[in-house]
Amino acid sequence: MFNLKQFEVWFVTGSQHLYGSKTLKQVAFHSQKIAKALNAAPAIPVKVVFKSVLTTPDAVTALCQEANNAPGCLGLVTWCHTFSPSKMWINGLKILRKPILHFHTQHNCDIPWSSIDMDFMNLNQSAHGDREHGFIMSRMRLDRKVVTGFWQDVAIQKQIGAWCRAAAAWHDWQGAKFCRFGDNMREVAVTEGDKVAVQIKFGYSVNGYGVGDLVKYINEATDAQINALVQEYMASYVIAPEFRKSGEKQNSLREAARIEIGLRAFIKEGSFKGFTTTFEDLHGLAQLPGLAAQRLMAEGYGFGAEGDWKTCALVRAMKVMSIGLKGGTSFMEDYTYHLHPKSMNVLGAHMLEICPSIAKSKPSLEVHPLGIGGKADPARLVFDTPPGPGLNAAIMDMGNRFRLLVNEVDVVSQERPLPKLPVARAFWVPKPDFHTAVTAWIYAGGAHHTGFSQSVTTEMLEDFANMAGVELMVIDSDTTIRQFKRELNWNEIYYGLRNGLAS
Ligand code: MN
Question: Which of 60, 82, 341, 406 lies at a C-alpha separation of 20 to 30 Å from 187?
Fold first, then answer.
């Protein structure tokens, strides 16, 4: 997709003038050392830049203004090596529009038993300095992440890394454009939502385009372009022999290639970060864009079927979060269940549009009838998903707020072959167990479409929800139905009070 190292988080240290210049120099020196270590940490995918030691209210405000205006700055990591009286942070924090992580660390690991003196005590004060810093952010009701621990600890660096990934996805959403061909699948509720509220809350816009606008680009695809793309297909996937001969299958592939060329041109020209299609509006298209959706998703575009723009945007955000990590991310749908008492699990799939980034091995390119949409047989990539940990996430518009819902799952190998099911698929056992997970998901109003990932973590999504200031509900190994229902009820009150009239 793109390199996350093009982005920066700014490491900022709070202090004051009480200690004199000698101590402040040491503060700066130690801060640089920590920032440098974080910058080099494999778990942190962006640049960590030491910015400054802030000692006055004006300096804090100026720094926050600078961060707001810096296009490559994802957010601030703050730390108070010494004590930094927090009233001097109020005006700056009031205007800060970027995410903030409060890193509660300490320069030294151990207490230097034999040499500790009052100079040491005057310098190494984060144990109380960071409490003052935390108070003002709680007092101002600021959403932020607090990470506590020694800066060389890899587990601590991972927590900062997760936040950086969420901040990159949040940055990517600001001003992002998603394109919707046609409208919603008729009468479906959960894929609807308030696009104005989304733009205010999340920063991205969704606009509709007639499928005829796309058809114009598809018709402009040349034979030479189509030949080249079909060649690329042949080289990239497992291909049945009948595709290599001219005939119906070869024609289907050429149509799929024509659609991909047109779709790609349309999306590039409009600078869209994702798109939705609907099988109810395919006028002028020979087949549903299955293969094209799969291949564009694999490059990092968001996708939602049946006009589902919320899932499309979420898939894009999850793609950004997982740049460079092992394991893929895809649009997904809970399709059908295996309810055998000894191995209850979910078969996840879609009609066609599952991202090959989650394929266990080289996908097989196939053409089969679809039985829905009334169009020619579409091309698609068919594959299985490797076992291991994963999650499903969905965003719903609850009327007065958006809810991000996450369910951790264990992806499992399928028990038997599926010779007559020509779609990409995944099997998973949701945590904490099938009954609890699915019941909780239904109580939360969770969508049937999700962003499925084997690289994005709950922590990243939690940080992301915090940045957006939206509700997060997690179904994991600790979930019980009774507690989950209580939380849903409490959240009704909390978000009602917090949001007032604006969702
Ligand atoms: Mn669907």
Answer: 406
Residues 6+ apart with CB under 8 A from 370: 288, 351, 352, 377, 378
Phi and psi angles of residue 142, each rounded to the nearest 5 degrees, phi first: -90, 130
300 three-class SS: coil
- How many A from CA of 366 to the centre of ligand 1? 20
Query: 334: helix, coil or strand?
Result: strand
Residue 16 has a pLDDT of: 93
Distance from the CA of 111 to the center of ligand 1, in angstroms? 58
- From ligand 1's centre to the CA of 308, what distance in Å? 8
CA of 362 to the centre of ligand 1 (A): 24
| pLDDT tens figures, 55-98 | 999 999 999 999 999 999 999 999 999 999 999 999 999 999 99
d(CA 91, ligand 1 centre) in Å: 47
Report the separation in Å between the CA atom of 302 and the middle of ligand 1, taken as the mean of its atom positions: 15
- Residue 210 alpha carbon to ligand 1 centre in Å: 20
Q: Indicate the angle between helix axes 481-499 and 434-443, nearest 10 degrees.
A: 20
Cα(74) to centroid of ligand 1, in Å? 33
- When pLDDT is averaged across residues 438-454 and rounded to a whole number, the result is 98
Q: Do 275 and 207 contact (CB within 8 A), yes or no?
A: no
pLDDT reading at 412 higher than 70: yes
Nearest one of 321, 345, 450 to 396, comparing CA atoms: 450
Distance 141 CA to ligand 1 centre (A): 38
Position 502 scores a pLDDT of 53
Total residues belonging to the chain: 503
pLDDT tens digits, 297-325: 999 999 999 999 999 999 999 999 999 99
Helix (H) and strand (E) counts in the chain: 15, 19
Contacts of 6 (CB under 8 A, 6+ apart): 72
Going from the Cα of 452 to the center of ligand 1, the distance in angstroms, rounded, reads 14
- Distance in angstroms (rounded) separating the CA atoms of residues 315 and 394: 9
d(CA 339, CA 344): 5
CA of 282 to the centre of ligand 1 (A): 16
Distance from residue 458's CA to the centre of ligand 1 (Å) = 24
Q: What is the CA 503 to chain-centroid distance, rounded? A: 21
Question: Alpha carbon of 396 to those of 86, 445, 454: distances in Å?
Answer: 37, 8, 22
Phi, psi at 352, each rounded to 5°: -145, -35
| Distance between Cα 275 and ligand 1 center (Å) | 14
